[in-house]
C-alpha cells in the first residue's frame, strides 16, 4: 500500500492559509502535487488582504 501522510491544520484566517501553502510548496515536487490540485487553496488567497481576515 502507498505511504500516507497526515497534516492537521487549524485554518482560521488568511495567514494560516499562507503558512499551509508555504509548507505544501516544500513537499509539492516530491509528491507530484500540481497547481490545479491546489487551486481551491489559491482561491482563498484572493480574498481580503488583511492577514487576520477569516
Automatic annotation (TrEMBL):
SUPFAM superfamilies cross-referenced by the UniProt entry: DNA/RNA polymerases (SSF56672)
A GO term for molecular function: RNA-directed DNA polymerase activity
InterPro entries in UniProt: DNA/RNA_pol_sf, Rev_trsase/Diguanyl_cyclase, RVT_thumb
TM region(s), chain numbering: none
Keywords: Endonuclease, Hydrolase, Nuclease, Nucleotidyltransferase, RNA-directed DNA polymerase, Transferase
A Pfam family matched in the record: RVT_thumb
Domain Reverse transcriptase thumb: 10-54
Stored PANTHER family: ENDOGENOUS RETROVIRUS GROUP K MEMBER POL PROTEIN, RNA-DIRECTED DNA POLYMERASE-RELATED
Protein name: POK11 protein
Lineage of origin: Eukaryota, Metazoa, Chordata, Craniata, Vertebrata
